[in-house]
Design a protein that fits this description.
It is built from 13 helices and 28 strands. The protein has about 600 residues and is an alpha+beta fold.
C-alpha cells in the first residue's frame, strides 16, 4: 500500500470518556472484526481491564477502510486515560501523526483531557476533537464545543459529535481521519528507522516488539541493531495487529505492527529505542520520549515467608510486560524478606498488587507508600532516600527536600471552598483559578507528592460528589521540615511502621497509629507501652493493659492478707517478665494496620 494512504492515530481522553467503546465501533465499522466475534472492550486483553472498565496497556490495531473508492490503512492505538499511565500515552503519541481527542458530552473537558491535549500538541500531532456520548440524557454538545474553543483553543467547527455506544458519527470520524490527518512523516529518510513503543514477552517467541516503521522496510531474516545498546538480532517474524497478530512478508514505511527477533531477554530492548539495519545503520535515532521514572515506593512482602522465591519469580514476570515497575530485594525485622518496589502512582501500585494476588496466587502485604526524598548531608553529600530506614542520623542532615507536583483540579463551583480547605490541609498552595463554565472551576496548585498518596483522590471524589478530577505532573523538589516517625512497642522500634512525615503532622499521625495498634495488638501478661517517637523524643503514647489471671480464685474465705500476698507475688512476676519479655507482633496485626492505612 502507498505510504500516502496510511494513517497512524491514537485515541486520547480523560478516564471513562469512552475510548475503548469507540475503538470497538471503529473495528466493527471497518469490518476488522466480524460482528459474531465482537465483544465489549475488544482491545482490553487483561481481566483486570475488563472488570474495572479501564485501559492499563496501550493496544494497537490495523484497519482497512475504503474511502471514495480508494483503500486506506488506518493504524489505531487505544491508550489509557488514568494519570498513572500517562507514560503509555506519551509512547503511543510518539508513534502517531494524529489523535482523536475524546470529550464526554455530559462531563465536558476534564483535567486529563487538557493534559493529553498538551502532550499531543508538544509532539506536533494533528488533533480531531470528538464529543462522545451525545445520546446521554445529560449531554450538552453545544456547551462542550464552547469549552473546546475556550480551554483547548481548537475551533468548535472541527468537533465531531458521536456515540461509541450506539455508533452515531463513526463514519464521520473515519472520514476525518483520512481527510484531516497527515500521511506518515519522515518516510522519505533513506535509512531504516523503526520506533519501539511497547514490548511484551511471549513464552514461545521471546520478546515481541510493538513498533512503528518510520522509514525503510523490515522483513524476516534481516539483521537489525538496537541503536541505544548496540544489541544485534535477527528478525524472525513481522506482522500487523488485526487485532490478533497476523504475520506478513514485510513492514514498510508508515506501518504499525510487531517484530519478533532472536532476543529472549526483555532488558536488551528498551522501549523508545530505534531499530535499524545492522549493515546500513541510520545516522541518528528517532526522537523518543522521556524515560519513565517511578514516583511511589512501597515494600511488598509475602505473608507466608516460604513464598519469597515465588514472589521473586512473579515480580520478574510482571516487569517483563511493564517497563515502569522497578524492584529490589530488602528485608524487614518484622516482615522478613521482600521487595522494595517503585510504581508510577497509587493506581499502578494497586494494579500490580492485584495482579500478584490474582495471576500468581500470592498472599502479600505492602508497607506505607512513600516517595523519593532528597537528603543533603552536612558534608555536602546528596542522597536519594525512598525508605525511612535509610534516612541518616539527624545530626548528619543539613536539609531534606520532598518532591512537589503541579496539579490541575477540575471541581464544581459549589465545592470550591471544601476543595481549597483540602488543598490547604495537604500543605498545598492554590495560586490560580479559572472558570471552565457556569458550573465548574479549574484550580492550579502546588502540592507535596507525599500528601496525595493515601486518601487525596478519594476525598476529592467525596467532596465533589464524583464530579471532580485531577491531573498532575512532577514540579521539582522543595526543602521541607520533614522527620522520621518511629513506632515503638515495648520500647522496641517496629521498622515496618516507620515513615517520613512533616513535623507539623507527626504528632497527629503518631497518635492515630498508636490508637489503632492498641485496638489490634493482642494483650500480653504484662502492660505494654505503644509509643510514637521522632528522633528518640516520645510524642504520643497508648498503654495496652495486661491480661489478668485471677490468682485468688482458690482463696475463698479467710484472711485478706493471703489474697494480698498472692496478688503481690503476681505483680513481681509481671514486673520481672516485663524486664525480659519481648512482644512478638503477630503477622495479622501488620496486615490489619497496613491494610487500613493504605
Amino acid at each position: 500500500m502507498k505510504t500516502s494512504h496510511i494513517r497512524n492515530f491514537c485515541i486520547i481522553a480523560h478516564v471513562d470518556h469512552g475510548k475503548t467503546t469507540l475503538s470497538d465501533r471503529l473495528l466493527e465499522s471497518t469490518q476488522t472484526v466480524q460482528r459474531r466475534e465482537m465483544k465489549d472492550q475488544m482491545l482490553d486483553s487483561m481481566d483486570l481491564e475488563r472488570e474495572r472498565g479501564i485501559t492499563i496497556k496501550s493496544h494497537p490495531v490495523s484497519m482497512l477502510y475504503k474511502h471514495e473508492g480508494e483503500d486506506y490503512l488506518l493504524n489505531l492505538i487505544d491508550t489509557p486515560g488514568h494519570v498513572d499511565f500517562s507514560y503509555e500515552v506519551s509512547r503511543s503519541l510518539a508513534a502517531c501523526e494524529g489523535a482523536l481527542l475524546l470529550i464526554d458530552a455530559a462531563q465536558g473537558v476534564e483535567a486529563q483531557t487538557v493534559a493529553n491535549a498538551h502532550l499531543a500538541v508538544e509532539q506536533g500531532l494533528e488533533i480531531i476533537p470528538v464529543i462522545n456520548k451525545i445520546d446521554l440524557p445529560g449531554a450538552h454538545p453545544e456547551l462542550i464545543e464552547q469549552q473546546i474553543e475556550d480551554i483547548l483553543a481548537i475551533p468548535r467547527e472541527e468537533a465531531i459529535r458521536a456515540s461509541g455506544k450506539s455508533g452515531i458519527g463513526i463514519d464521520d470520524i473515519l472520514d476525518a481521519v483520512v481527510n484531516r490527518l497527515p500521511s506518515p512523516r519522515w518516510s522519505d529518510n533513506p535509512d531504516t528507522r523503526v520506533l519501539v513503543f511497547d514490548n511484551v514477552y511471549d513464552t514461545y517467541k521471546g520478546v515481541i516488539c510493538y513498533v512503528r516503521v518510520f522509514s525503510g522496510c523490515v522483513k524476516p531474516g534481516d539483521e537489525v541493531v538496537m541503536m541505544s545498546t548496540g544489541q544485534k538480532a535477527i528478525v524472525k517474524e513481522v506482522g500487523r495487529f488485526s487485532p490478533k497478530m497476523l504475520p506478513e512478508k514485510e513492514l514498510g514505511a508508515g506501518r504499525t505492527g510487531y517484530i519478533v527477533t532472536s532476543i529472549k531477554d526483555l532488558a536488551d530492548i528498551k522501549i523508545g529505542d530505534t531499530i535499524t539495519h545492522a549493515a546500513t545503520p541510520a545516522g541518528e535515532m528517532l526522537p523518543g520520549y522521556k524515560e519513565v521514572r517511578p514516583m511511589v515506593f512501597s515494600g511488598v512482602y509475602p505473608i507466608d515467608t516460604s513464598d519469597y522465591n515465588k514472589l521473586k519469580a512473579s515480580m520478574a514476570k510482571l516487569q517483563i510486560n511493564d517497563a515502569a515497575l522497578v524492584y529490589q530485594s530488602e528485608s524487614s525485622v518484622a516482615l522478613g524478606f521482600g521487595f522494595r518496589c517503585g510504581f508510577l502512582g497509587l493506581l499502578h501500585m494497586e494494579i500490580i498488587q492485584e495482579r500478584l494476588r490474582r495471576e500468581y496466587d500470592l498472599d502479600i502485604i505492602s508497607t506505607y507508600p512513600s516517595v523519593i526524598y532528597r537528603v543533603t548531608k552536612t558534608d555536602g553529600e546528596v542522597l536519594d532516600v525512598d525508605n525511612p530506614q535509610f534516612l541518616p542520623d539527624p545530626s548528619e542532615i543539613d536539609t531534606i527536600e520532598e518532591p512537589m507536583i503541579r496539579a490541575t483540579i477540575h471541581t464544581p463551583t459549589e465545592s470550591i471552598g471544601d476543595m481549597l480547605a483540602l488543598i490547604s490541609e495537604k500543605r498545598g498552595i492554590c495560586d490560580h483559578t479559572e472558570t471552565v463554565d457556569d458550573t465548574r472551576v479549574m484550580l492550579m496548585c502546588d502540592l507535596p507528592l507525599n500528601e496525595i498518596l493515601i486518601d487525596f483522590n478519594d476525598r476529592l471524589k467525596s467532596i465533589t460528589r464524583g464530579y471532580g478530577s485531577m491531573d498532575y505532573e512532577l514540579a521539582g523538589y522543595k526543602v521541607s521540615d520533614l522527620v522520621k516517625l518511629d513506632i515503638l512497642v515495648n520500647a522496641e522500634p517496629v521498622d515496618a511502621f516507620s515513615s517520613i512525615v512533616h513535623r507539623d503532622k507527626a504528632e497527629f499521625k503518631g497518635r492515630a497509629l498508636c490508637e489503632r495498634l492498641k485496638d489490634i495488638l493482642p494483650r500480653q501478661m504484662f502492660k505494654i507501652a505503644i509509643q510514637a517517637a521522632v528522633y528518640g523524643r516520645i510524642i504520643a503514647r497508648e498503654s495496652l493493659s495486661a491480661m489478668r489471671k485471677d490468682v485468688t480464685a482458690k482463696c475463698y474465705g479467710g484472711d485478706i492478707s493471703r489474697k494480698r500476698k498472692l496478688l503481690d507475688k503476681q505483680k513481681e512476676g509481671k514486673k520481672r517478665m516485663k524486664q525480659i519479655g519481648k512482644v512478638a507482633i503477630p503477622q495479622d496485626a501488620f496486615v490489619k494496620i497496613l491494610k487500613t492505612s493504605t
